[in-house]
Amino acid sequence: MTINELQDEIIDEFEAFDDWLDRYQLLCDYGRELKKDPLPEADKTDSNLIDGCQSKVWFTCRKEDGKLFFKGDSDALLVQGIVALLLHVLSGHTPQEILDAKLYFVDRIGLQEHLSPTRSNGVVAMLKQIKLYALAYNTNL
After folding, report:
1. What does the domain layout of the chain look like in residue ranges?
2. What pTM was computed for the model?
3. To the nearest whole percent, how much of the chain has pLDDT over 90?
4. Which one of 3.30.1130.10, 3.40.640.10, 3.90.1010.10, 3.40.50.300 gives the CATH number of domain 3-137?
5. pLDDT tens-digit profile of 23-48?
6. How far, in Å, CA of 64 to CA of 59, rounded?
7. Buried b (16+ CB within 10 A) or exposed e, 68-91
8. How far apart are CA 36 and CA 84, in angstroms?
9. Among 20, 5, 25, 26, which Cα is nearest to 104's?
10. Which run of H or E residues covers position 56?
11. What is the 3-state secondary structure (H, E, C) of 57-91?
């Protein structure tokens, strides 16, 4: 699936719920999905820690067959859900696809307006780190 198709899929899932408590629950469910393929404890290092997040958030990235695959975790369940959404949309794509992506799902599901300012800044920091990985691995530059 393309990045936009994955974003649209998430938007559809969240739009099925009118109540934000249900949407938070869905976000937490996404977070629990991270635990099925957890980030190894050995990767929870300062070098993988995302600056600018209220909670602790770690990302790793590997390139395989021209595509980037991310893993991540957080010490907060709600933030794990945000990490899971970002990784669901962006993992498994080429660096150029990630760099070219216009990520609209965060705004469309209303996440930005329902997060505290520090959590919103954390989302921006996570996206920045993913784009930096894509930039570092991009062979088209």
Report:
1. 3-137
2. 0.91
3. 70
4. 3.90.1010.10
5. 999 999 999 988 888 999 999 999 99
6. 16
7. bebbbbbebbbbbbbbbbbbbbbb
8. 11
9. 5
10. none
11. EEEEEEEECCEEEEEEEECCHHHHHHHHHHHHHHC
Q: How many CB atoms lie within 10 A of CB 54?
A: 17
Q: What one-letter code names the amino acid at 62? A: R
| CA 30 – CA 25 distance, rounded (Å) | 9
Count of beta carbons in the 10 Å neighbourhood of residue 134:
23
3-state class of 2 per DSSP?
Answer: coil
Please name which of 89, 91, 88, 86 lies closest in space to residue 67, comparing C-alpha atoms: 91
Cα Rg for the chain, rounded, in angstroms? Answer: 14
**In this structure, what DSSP letter does residue 11 have?**
H
DSSP letter (8 states) at residue 93: B
How many angstroms separate the CA atoms of 11 and 116, rounded? 21
Active-site residue set: 53
CA distance linking residue 84 with residue 32, whole number of Å:
9
